[in-house]
Amino acid sequence: MKKIFKLSYIFVAAMMALTACDDDYEYSPAGEPVVTSSMTFAEGLAYSAELAPEDNEIELTVLRASAEGSEKVGLDIVGADCFEVPASVSFEEGQTRASFILKINDKMKYFTRYTVTLRLRTNEYDPANNGFITLTLSKNDYTDVATGVYKSQLFSGWSTTLQYSATYDQYRLGEWITPGYDLFFKWEKGAAEVTMLQPEYETGYTHSTYGLVTGKCIPINEAGDVALFQNDTFYFGFNYYVSAGSFGNFLDTFQVTSWNE
User: Fold this and answer.
1) I need a surface site. Which of 93, 102, 128, 181 has the fewest CB within 10 A?
2) Which carries the bigger pLDDT value, residue 17 or residue 230?
3) Are strands 142-152 and 245-259 parallel, antiparallel or unpaired?
């Protein structure tokens, strides 16, 4: 008990000593948090994109709730060192939108997915602040080599582009049946042989009754080839099916109308 009392006595004495020094110490309170308008990114809280070889910047937009007065808000970036943004975003009187450029340097590697987060330094005292965005970006080296028309007995026809990747030494028909779904294959330019890289491909098309449609590669000649090239036309054999069954066998074509090289 005596030991506890002695410790308490020392604590009180120390507090008295600090109080005695109050007259000699000037206290400077911390500054108030910077209060700005409520701001968000027009692209939402998350954004993803696949960039082409020539893409070296992305334009993003910040929205604010009020157009009153001019205003500047700081911008922070956390992520890979292949991205650069300005230190702040500025609004002029009457503006509710302000755009800025996310720059991409040559440190970005092909076919590598990068994640970077941008944050607006606004209303830092507000735990519900949504002034941030997470970007998921990748870059490919596919270049356009030809344009033409893809025709399918099941899906009709449309204009599209044939592309080539030097990294993978392969071709693709980008956004084959629907956006986000590509048709990949190997081909020696001018040769009749075409080698499909997968036994089947998701089309991305969802049937209103039967769900997702998938294309299974099937032979189109006695030799068992599932794809061929002849007279500026690619021929692809597919059995399009859904979980409930098959729509049947089809011969799709991509006819080149113009070569880029």
Assistant:
1) 128
2) 230
3) antiparallel
Please say whether the beta carbons of 115 and 108 come within 8 A.
no
pTM: 0.72
**How many other β-carbons are positioned within 10 Å of the β-carbon of residue 204?**
16
Tell me the backbone φ, ψ of residue 228, rounded to 5 degrees.
Answer: -145, 160
Contacts of 109 (CB under 8 A, 6+ apart): 139
Q: Which amino acid is at 253?
A: T
Among the listed residues 147, 148, 100, the one whose alpha carbon sits nearest the alpha carbon of residue 120: 100
User: 3-class DSSP state for residue 188?
Assistant: coil
Q: Among all chains, which residue has been given the structure tokens 């991409």?
A: 104
CB contact at 8 A, 205 and 212: yes
Q: How far apart are CA 253 and CA 33, in angstroms?
A: 63
How far apart CA 108 and CA 56 sit, in angstroms, is 10
